[in-house]
Each structure stands twice: as C-alpha cells, then as structure tokens.
C-alpha cells in the first residue's frame, strides 16, 4: 500500500500471504535440547501452502472466463500475449510465430491446468498429486521462458512443492528408498488406486474434449478447438462447484489435523506426548482460522456463494483484511494490448530543431 499502484499487483499480495504462512510453517523450537527437524503437526500448517496454491490457480483460471474477455473466450489470447506483455523475452518472439491452432490449444491447456487439475491437489492418490505438481511447474516454466514477471513464477513453483513428499524429493537428491518388487497379483487397494488414477486421467481428457470441442482436422493437419459452452452455463457450473470445493478443502484439512493428532499419540514419553499435543492444538487452531478467513476472498469468484458464508467468517476477515494475510487472486483476467500497446516515447534535441 505504501508503493500505491506500483506495488499493488497480485503477486505482491501473494508474496505477503506466502510470507505470513512461512511464519506458521517454519519450525518453532522452544525446547532446543529435544528439538527435531520434523514435528507431528507440520503437515497441518504446510497444508495452508497447498490451499494458497489452489486458490491462486483455480481463481486465475476462472476469472479469465467470468471477465467475458473476447480473446479468452475465443481462445486467441496468446496470439496477442507474447508481443504485448510488459517484458517479453527473446523466446517470446519464437512463441509468437507459432501457428494459430497451436496458440488456441495452448489456451485450452492453460484452462485445464488452472481450473481442472488444481482439484487433484487434494487427491488421496500420491501419483495424482505428482501429476498436478509437474503440470503446474510446466506452466510456470513456460511463462518464465516467454516473459519476465520477476519473482511471481518462482514463488508459484515454490508453493507447488507443497504437493510433494519426502520420498519423491529424496529421489531428486539421490536418497530415494529402493522399493521391493511388487507382488503379483497386486493387492485390492493397489488395483483400486490404479483404476481410480486411470479413470481420473480419462475423465480429464473427456472433459477437455467436450468443453473445448477438440477435434483433429486431418485434411489441414491441425487441431481445432473452440469453447463449447456459454457464459451462463459456465457461471451456473461455477456456482454449483464453489461451495463443494470449500467443503473439499475443509475435509482435506480435517483429515490432516486428525492424522497429526494420531502422530502425537505415537510419540514416546508422557511429557513429550503432551508437549506435542499442545503444539498441535495451537497450530491446528491457527490453521483452521486461516482457512476460515481465506474463504471470503476465495468466494469472490461467485458472489452468491460468498453471501452464503457464515457471518462470523466475514467479521473475522474484516478484522484482518488490512494486513493482507489472505487475498483474492485472478491473474491475467483480461488480455491487454489487443488494440496495440501504448508506448512511452522519450525525445531529446540539442538544437531544438532535430529531435531524436
């Protein structure tokens, strides 16, 4: 707010919110002689990072359609984006030369990554969360290669690390545990998990094809795409899913809190068990408070759902709104520079006759 419009972009708000969450995620070591790098309640506070990533990505995808921007609805936004963004990179020139059908398909892929895949952040199947992680990182890396948005994309990638687990990161570092050869036939749980995973991929593909009319044109050797739904249909869908998504988040957080409580009971020693439970109670309460407050800016994407929130949540949000610890997001709501980008031209002259 001190920098006014110059420091009032959404990624500045994102930096504030992520910085505040780092206070909760960072280890609190009051009893240093018995401190460890891991605490039973770590997954609870770390869940807030995942929730922030979900709100950022889902809202950013939704607002592109609720804004009624003709380029986003016509899937032509990227035909303007690369040459009219603030600071394009040299790679942006090559991206701008890509054929129109590929630019339109890239917009479809953006919708899928930002609207559909974020739901998988809370999937109980580990491989689905890893798929969601690499999808988000791919999008951010492509943005980094074609445009300079300072720390925004790097920070988003950091938030995406909340989708990983120690085992997967250990593989990157060469510390992965060797898995024993899977027995055959596979267990019922493993079979159902694989079946659910494949069904999810199939449903995602079917939704993408139906929603965006994806069709291969063999004669012209290109991929046709178009938005196959109306604005009214989309807003109706958004109204139908907003509160259920809040419920999904609440269910996911509740499970994390219960699992953390169970880990507290597993600690040896009565004193350390009580100490862990005390920390669990404090951080679980703080996490539930942050989750509740974040529902107000999240439901801005559907004001009818926002009005259905408990009035106490609105009061809580009003009390902390000025600190910007929770914010609403919706990046690239409208495509700028469609009619040409205004440029600042500086001219100077030594003789007041010839201007350069």
TrEMBL record:
<feature type="transmembrane region" description="Helical">
    <location>
        <begin position="14"/>
        <end position="31"/>
    </location>
</feature>
<keyword id="KW-0812">Transmembrane</keyword>
<keyword id="KW-1133">Transmembrane helix</keyword>
<comment type="function">
    <text>Involved in the maturation of specific proteins in the endoplasmic reticulum.</text>
</comment>
<feature type="domain" description="Lipase maturation factor 1/2 N-terminal">
    <location>
        <begin position="8"/>
        <end position="169"/>
    </location>
</feature>
<comment type="similarity">
    <text>Belongs to the lipase maturation factor family.</text>
</comment>
<feature type="transmembrane region" description="Helical">
    <location>
        <begin position="274"/>
        <end position="301"/>
    </location>
</feature>
<feature type="transmembrane region" description="Helical">
    <location>
        <begin position="237"/>
        <end position="262"/>
    </location>
</feature>
<feature type="transmembrane region" description="Helical">
    <location>
        <begin position="101"/>
        <end position="121"/>
    </location>
</feature>
<feature type="transmembrane region" description="Helical">
    <location>
        <begin position="43"/>
        <end position="63"/>
    </location>
</feature>
<dbReference type="GO" id="GO:0051604">
    <property type="term" value="P:protein maturation"/>
</dbReference>
<feature type="transmembrane region" description="Helical">
    <location>
        <begin position="151"/>
        <end position="167"/>
    </location>
</feature>
<dbReference type="Pfam" id="PF06762">
    <property type="entry name" value="LMF1"/>
</dbReference>
<protein>
    <recommendedName>
        <fullName>Lipase maturation factor</fullName>
    </recommendedName>
</protein>
<feature type="transmembrane region" description="Helical">
    <location>
        <begin position="188"/>
        <end position="209"/>
    </location>
</feature>
<keyword id="KW-0472">Membrane</keyword>
<dbReference type="InterPro" id="IPR009613">
    <property type="entry name" value="LMF"/>
</dbReference>
<dbReference type="InterPro" id="IPR057434">
    <property type="entry name" value="LMF1/2_N"/>
</dbReference>
<dbReference type="GO" id="GO:0005789">
    <property type="term" value="C:endoplasmic reticulum membrane"/>
</dbReference>
<keyword id="KW-0256">Endoplasmic reticulum</keyword>
């Amino acid at each position: 707010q001190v920098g006014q419009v110059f420091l009032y972009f959404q990624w500045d708000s994102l930096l504030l919110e992520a910085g505040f969450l780092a206070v909760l995620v960072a280890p609190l070591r009051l009893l240093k002689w018995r401190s460890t790098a891991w605490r039973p309640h770590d997954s609870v506070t770390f869940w807030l990072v995942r929730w922030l990533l979900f709100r950022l990505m889902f809202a950013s995808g939704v607002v592109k359609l609720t804004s009624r921007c003709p380029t986003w609805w016509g899937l032509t936004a990227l035909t303007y984006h690369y040459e009219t963004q603030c600071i394009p990179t040299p790679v942006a020139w090559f991206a701008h030369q890509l054929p129109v059908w590929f630019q339109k398909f890239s917009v479809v892929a953006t919708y899928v990554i930002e609207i559909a895949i974020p739901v998988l952040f809370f999937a109980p199947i580990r491989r689905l969360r890893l798929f969601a992680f690499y999808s988000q990182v791919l999008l951010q890396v492509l943005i980094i290669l074609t445009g300079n948005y300072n720390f925004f994309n790097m920070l988003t990638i950091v938030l995406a690390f909340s989708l990983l687990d120690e085992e997967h990161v250990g593989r990157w570092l060469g510390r992965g545990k060797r898995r024993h050869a899977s027995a055959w036939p596979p267990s019922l749980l493993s079979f159902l998990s694989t079946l659910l995973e494949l069904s999810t991929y199939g449903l995602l593909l079917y939704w993408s094809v139906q929603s965006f009319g994806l069709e291969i044109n063999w004669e012209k050797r290109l991929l046709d795409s178009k938005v196959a739904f109306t604005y009214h249909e989309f807003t109706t869908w958004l109204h139908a899913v907003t509160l259920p998504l809040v419920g999904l988040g609440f269910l996911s957080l509740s499970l994390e809190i219960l699992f953390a409580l169970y880990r507290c009971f597993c600690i040896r020693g009565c004193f350390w068990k009580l100490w862990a439970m005390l920390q669990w109670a404090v951080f679980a309460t703080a996490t539930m408070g942050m989750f509740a407050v974040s529902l107000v800016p999240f439901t801005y994407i559907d004001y009818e759902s926002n009005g259905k929130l408990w009035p106490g949540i609105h009061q809580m949000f009003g009390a902390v709104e000025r600190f910007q610890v929770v914010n609403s997001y919706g990046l690239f709501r409208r495509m700028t520079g469609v009619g040409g980008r205004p440029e600042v031209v500086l001219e100077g002259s030594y003789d007041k006759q010839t201007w350069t």
